[in-house]
Amino acid sequence: MSLIKKLHQSIWQLSSRLGPFAPFIALLILSLAMLSASRLGLILWKFDRVMNTGKLAEILLQGIRVDIMQFCFIALIPVLLAPLLATKQLFKIWQKFSYAWVITALVLLVFLEVATPGFINEYDVRPNRIFVEYLKYPNEVFSMLWRGFKVDIFAVLISASLALWLAHRYMKPWLAMQPSWSNKKLWLIWPLMFILIALGIRSSLGHRPANPAMFAITADSMVNSLVLNSGYSVTYATYTLMQETKSSDIYGKMPREQIFKLTGAKDADIPTLTTLHPSHKREKPLNLVIILQESLGATFVESLGGTPVTPNIERLKEQGMWFEQLYATGTRSVRGIEAVTAGFAPTPADSTVKLSKSQKNFFTLAALLEKRGYYTEFIYGGESHFDNMRSFFTGNGFKGIIEQKDYKNPAFVSSWGVSDEDLLNKTHEQLLAHHKAGTPFFTLAFSSSNHAPFEFPDGRIELYEQPKGTDNNAVKYADYAIGEFFKKAQNSPYWKDTVFLIVADHDIRVRGVSLVPADHFHIPGLILGADIKPVRYTGMASQIDLPVTLLSLMGIEAQHPMTGRDLSSIAPDSLGRAMMQYNANFGWMEETKDGNQVVVLRSGKAPAHAVYDTKTKQLKETSPPANAKELEQRALANALLPDLLYNEQRYRLPQ
After folding, report:
1. For a FRET experiment, which of 2, 208, 253, 596 has its CA 20 to 30 Å from that of 535?
2. Backbone angles phi, psi at 335, to 5 degrees
3. What is the C-alpha separation between 525 and 547, in angstroms, rounded?
4. How far from 584 is each of 155, 306, 637, CA to CA, in Å?
5. Neighbouring C-beta atoms of residue 622, cutoff 10 Å
6. Contacts of 500 (CB under 8 A, 6+ apart)
């Protein structure tokens, strides 16, 4: 008899002494072994980053703690049902139920662990809320996976199938066992089992139960996620998605009047209502076109310290207002959309594009301009329902929606929709039609070519590298499409009456060992068109400054609730600030003559301080500076304000 078979029998002989709870002891043994092996493999894969934290032993030990929590989550429902189903009278039903429950749990745990390396490659973190959110969009996601992640798909399917077979073999002895406990013994011992499970889930005798924040033991978010297992990470993400997180729940509270004082808001119906007096006075305000570029961070712009794959943007930057220190507010497209089209600052909750209270009567540029007679439209290459964009846009001022089904004979179709050149060709057609009709317009065009698996048509560019399907090549193609569009736009009748913004929604694969990797929030931004004069804006700026600046350049005098600055009315070297939401961390960065001070608000932990060198793009943690308290309070106020405005539905136009 083989050693494995003897071990198998020994486990079941030992487990059988626990009567109806035997399958869950078997599950505990197997899941701890499997999850620990998976964690160890991931640690070896990312060994340098793990060793740089100096926390290897703690990661392994705390990982076992998380795995026990995960096991207790899985066992909770069966344990609750045990007093009824595990009795002698219903024992056969209990056997089949617990057999199916354990096998399903094991297969799911294996499925998620095998899917983890591919997810880490893409997002630099274990499967989390993004993993859950993407389940809402099976067409786009399955197409993307099939075209770009075939190896991962087959690895997951083969591993899950093998796990199913092995789990069946492992659990088979349980189906042949006879009840060994009396009902009385079951009912006497059950409370102890329930208490143990409850304590295991809580995993703490402190005021609060254990949660992912407790396992954030390093400054590297990816390494922190290794402490967890993917089943627990996804389960917790699902739980948090069912609740709209409030900044005050994780960063701390502040009196309402102090929030207003520190942010310059007022305790009024619309606390941030401001009257914009444009820097450019015009008899007839200009049109507006925003080209929102998917994942086109500063890492792809040579003059910003990146890879030289955007020659057209580099050429165009000499013709308009170019931002050298512009920072995204988040790491997702919907975060960029909310900042660029609504001027709304980030919160630890999901973007307002997806939250319930902002689906109507929420401020956007379209809501303001539509009231002034502008035709407002959103042009996208994929399906507009993705990430809830259609609902948010149509509820907040956008009158026209163009999506994949509206393109006739597109040049190229990828997993995410038509190519960038199709998108911008359609945009050009629409702008010509609006100009001919004599209607002022605001058009938002959102690209998608720079998205895994990085598909684009052949013959357009000289590839930057091999193989073809890389982010550098996809960005070079996106830049090609921008160049072709502006060749046509600058020779079109709408050019002299239109302001254009080219800006990224966020950088690609935002990651790093810092609490907030500020270098990966750095994005390009360019305003050009009409009579816009060339200027290099060297001061620090945030995405939320762009919509205010655009209205000012257009010549729009209006009341609005945006908290961003009009960068066209101040000196181009003015000191600024940026805000960056990175998972549960909120980074507040202020530019000073002596350097850039950064404070990071964290869930359940004291704020961290750092300095950021824009030349080396290095964020270095420091001890709290002399003005630490003042800086922390200002950061907290700016994290709490948008949360307050959203929840009280006070981010809107006046009635």
Report:
1. 596
2. -70, -40
3. 12
4. 31, 27, 16
5. 12
6. 289, 290, 291, 320, 486, 489, 527, 528, 529
Please state, in angstroms and rounded to a whole number, the distance separating the CA atoms of residues 542 and 445: 20
Question: Which of 294, 275, 649, 254 minimizes the C-alpha distance to 456?
Answer: 294
3-state secondary structure of 617: coil
pLDDT tens digits, 146-165:
888 889 999 999 999 999 99
Which residue in the block uniquely carries the two structure tokens 């795995």? Answer: 67
Fill in the amino acid letter for 643: D
* Residue keyed to tokens 């013994």: 185
Q: What are phi and psi of 463, to 5 degrees?
A: -60, 140
> What are residue 375's DSSP bridge partners?
441
> Locate tokens 């701890």: which residue?
32
- State residue 399 phi and psi, 5-degree precision: -95, -30
Rounded CA-CA distance 41/617 in Å is 31
Q: How confident is residue 207, by pLDDT bands cut at 50, 70 and 90?
A: low
pLDDT in tens, 564-607: 999 999 999 999 999 999 988 999 999 998 889 999 999 888 99
Q: Are 576 and 565 in contact (CB under 8 A)?
A: yes
- Do strands 535-542 and 321-327 pair parallel, antiparallel, or not at all (unpaired)? parallel
What phi and psi values does residue 81 have, to the nearest 5 degrees? Answer: -85, -15
Largest Cα separation within the chain, whole Å, is: 93
The closest alpha carbon to 274, from 283, 265, 262, 287, belongs to 265
Round the average pLDDT of the chain to a whole number and report it.
92
Q: Which residue has the tokens 């290459």?
A: 381
Instruction: Give the Cβ contact number of residue 590 at 10 Å.
Output: 19
Give the whole-angstrom CA distance, residue 516 versus residue 258: 26
Beta bridge partners, 498, equal 287
* Residue written as token pair 């096998």: 103
Whether the per-residue pLDDT at 61 is higher than 60: the answer is: yes
Q: Residue 15 above 60 pLDDT?
A: no
The 3-state DSSP class for residue 588 equals: strand
Is the pLDDT at 132 greater than 70? The verdict is: yes
